[in-house]
Amino acid sequence: MDKKLYTKEHEWILLEKNNTAIIGITNYAQKQLGDIVFVELPEIGKEFSKGEEIAVVESVKAASEVYSGVSGKIIEVNKNIINKPQVVNEDPEDKGWFVKIEISDLEEIEEFMSLKNYQTFCSDLE
Amino acid sequence: MRYLPHNDEAISRMLSEIGVSEVDELFSDVPSKALKNVKFNLPNHMSELEVERYMKNLTKNNLVASEIPFFIGGGAYQHHIPSAVDHIIQRGEFLTSYTPYQAEISQGTLQSLYEFQTQVSMITGMEIANASMYDGSTASAEAVLMAGRITKKNKIVITEAVHPQWIETIKTFINPIGMKLLKIKKKEPGKFEDNFGEICGNIDKDTACVVIQIPDFFGSVGSYTDISKKCNEYGALLIVCVTEVLSLGLLNPPGKFGADIVVCEGQSLGVGLSFGGPYVGLFSTHKKYVRYMPGRIVGQTSDKNGKRGWVLTLNTREQHIRREKATSNICTNAGLCALAFSIHLSLLGETGFKKLAVVNHERANFLYDALLLVKNISLLNDSFFNEFVISLPSSSKDFVEHACRKGIMAGLPVERLFFSLPNSKNMLLIAATELNTDNDIKKLVKLFKDYF
Amino acid sequence: MILKESSYGAGLDMHEPLIFEQGNTGRIGVDLPDTKLDTIRLGKCKIRNTIGLPDLSEPQVIRHYTRISRNNYSIDTGFYPLGSCSMKHNPRLNEKIARLPGLKDIHPFQPISSVQGALELIYNLQEWLKELTGMPFVSICPAAGAHGELCGLLSIKASLNNKGLERSIVLIPESAHGTNPASASFCGYTTDKIEEDSFGRINLVSLENKLDENVAAVMVTNPNTCGVFEKDILEISKRVHEAGAYLYCDGANFNALVGKIKPADLGIDAMHINLHKTFSTPHGGGGPGAGPTVLSEELAQYAPIPHVIFTKNKYDIIENINSSRNSLGRMRAFHCQMGTFIRALTFCLSHGKDGLKKVSEISVLNANYVKSRISKSIKPSYKLNCMHECLFDDSFLRGSGITTLDFAKALIDEGFHPPTMYFPLVVKGAMLIEPTESENKETLDLFCNSFIRLVDQIKSGNKDIFLNAPQYSPWKRLDEAKAARNLNLRWNKTT
Questions:
Q1: pTM of the model
Q2: Do residue C484 and residue A60 have CB atoms under 8 angstroms apart?
Q3: CB contact under 8 A, C44 and B222
């Protein structure tokens, strides 16, 4: 049951099997940030509760925190974007993913937006 | 008024363009209570000639360091500055430009700062450096805060042999964020390693950093590999302070002793005494800590045509982007003093920098040897670069006042800065540089002999 | 036809390698005596090996720096309308005075009796700053504006501590300089934003809602960085004080008020003064500056050491922490930015109270003139008359595919330094223009003409002159992303 959801903080969460999810930042977010030059990712095994800061992403002109939309434990991070942060600009919603997390409370995902709702949300921001 | 550009006609045309009849209308938002009846008890403007007279008159009440035998150090040193330095820093392109935010039309400043960063890295023996801090003392405080950010620990172990005003500055900076300072007493001023055992004994798992100085406040030098080993063992950072940057021309640099952050007062090169400021803080560290570093950083890149150039980089650490989460609040730094430092060091080069350091050590040796022959004075140092501490039979302050009346600046009474050290009342800190002639030194020695 | 570009340059466009790339060994730019060390007293410290510095002669060094200096824009060479920076003319008299041996060549630890002239100078500048601000005390130690903010906030913190009050929040409007929230964090405070009204001013309702017993201080900039005077400043001050908090004023924009009004009459408790802005000490490519900070009677007792005093017919300096009981401590080594103080006092004397009044009046007149002219072409962010700087945003660029950055770079091709960009944050794509009092009408007209001409180009859909800008600068658009991704912060032999 692959399902992709979006947060108001412009993260996407792709739900996978076995209560795991992949988190990244949206195409809208990378456009707003501009050329991304640095990404800081958490250690594997670290546990976060919902809404905590899990990563930092920096462009030339801005720095921004990436929040964990859900509580859980980091099981994998995308080392590729540490060496090549531009991948986040080039392919934010696939190759530019940030972390893989083991979700501890599935109910938390219910408040997130569908793609359609997220698109409306973004166009309202313009 | 010679600096103001408008004639009456221009003013009236501008007012009519704006659509007001007088300038005061533009101040209509200012509360009338503040605007009306304001009186300034100040004189009206003066011509150049009058200002010069006024200022020159003030200088009559100062004794000028370069005109008398001069032996004061204590964190600011009198050195000769080549005339080329002042010529270059007075070029309007350097003097009257702003922070190089518009890189395409600021490559002069950016290139010189990249060269400055390289020079600072080289002389301190570290991987990278920033584009300057206000001065050495604030740089040391920023280094301690940075160590706190990196280690996420709270305890600072510092030796009393760090410049007392630097320690006080560090205290002020750490106080609001709850870091704790453990000051290790100096039992024998002039013996570099004397409290190192106690320093090592106090490094533990809560220690963010250890702060030492070389040459230390009393002028002594030596090795501190024991401390750096202990720091490594506990994951504490070693911060090395240097108040006499010229010493790096002769001494093995902190980078070779395992320093993690090196902060220097750069005043000795190019900047001059200037009654204590503005000076220039040097700040260098390992490349892996670059994102924790305060201050501006220049990085190399290329332009659209592939031409090598430089820009301010990693701006996201800084206050204008990161605001409350910035690594520091510093904005304006010491740009022009950094340039002066850099020009002086370029003139010296490897050969001159080392040679000047040797001359300083030789001058200090000459003074030391001469003082050895003076009765009733004890020389406390077992090592030094160009400054050392001596103990007099009576108050060093009285002696310095006496010498001052005779037209000699004999040194710094230690008690002016050290309020708690036993016997500091009689201690005198004396520095010798390339500016001290044999004759100067003989005059000072004679004064000691006559007085005691 | 140019067959091949010389690596030395082209005409006056000079290609200058790094100083490390021109070095050699066995040369020197300073003659020093050949000294033999008979004795070495370095204890256990080894003598250092190769450093890696290049050896050069004096002519090489002079030429190197002269050549690279020509790649800088500067006030001496052109109009520099950077908002909130007060890039005004730097009088050369100030440089001359600062180099008098009796001022330049004195040590901070000389006996007090031998530096009476220096202390008198500091004292006199203190008196000028006190009189110009109407405040009773000035702390001399801050090395720059941000250091002054620290001085003010730490004094406030000390005062609250002394009253046994634990307050943890500093309120700051969104338009403030980044140093404000950074300084507040430095002092261990958390920050909260105050909203602005539709004129860019502090929204009194927002302020009122956030003012409670947890607020230590409110930091305002007046005039604010939108170039607008905080008209309700007396009301703001009243409410801040009623809430038991302090009002800190960022003095970066003092140029609009100097010699015209006294900030004390606006009800402030503390304010730093950027001597490198209002009092025209040169920016020097980023510093040094000085940020002496005026304090209210109540806060003065907490001020950092040192202070200069006049007593028993002589000047003295209080530098011992033990003799200033409530002092928050020391914020730096030595006394103050003396070199900057000398220039600032020279500026004060040269202008006098009559000249300083004209400084603020003409700087406000100039900004309004620029605003009025440009407003005929594009809408200003706020309609009201401005103080010493005026704010525009990128609404005129919407849909053009051109950004504020592109527009700024095109101004370079017109021969001007761009205004402050993307600041303040309260409007999108800000351009903040501060002409200062130094500029004559002819220069302002040239700037406005260029600005309007570029706006016309936007309106007619000409994109290239913006996207390719700057074309006439010695360097074209520099790749900032590359600099940050592949960090190269120093020269190495292999690079």
A1: 0.96
A2: yes
A3: yes
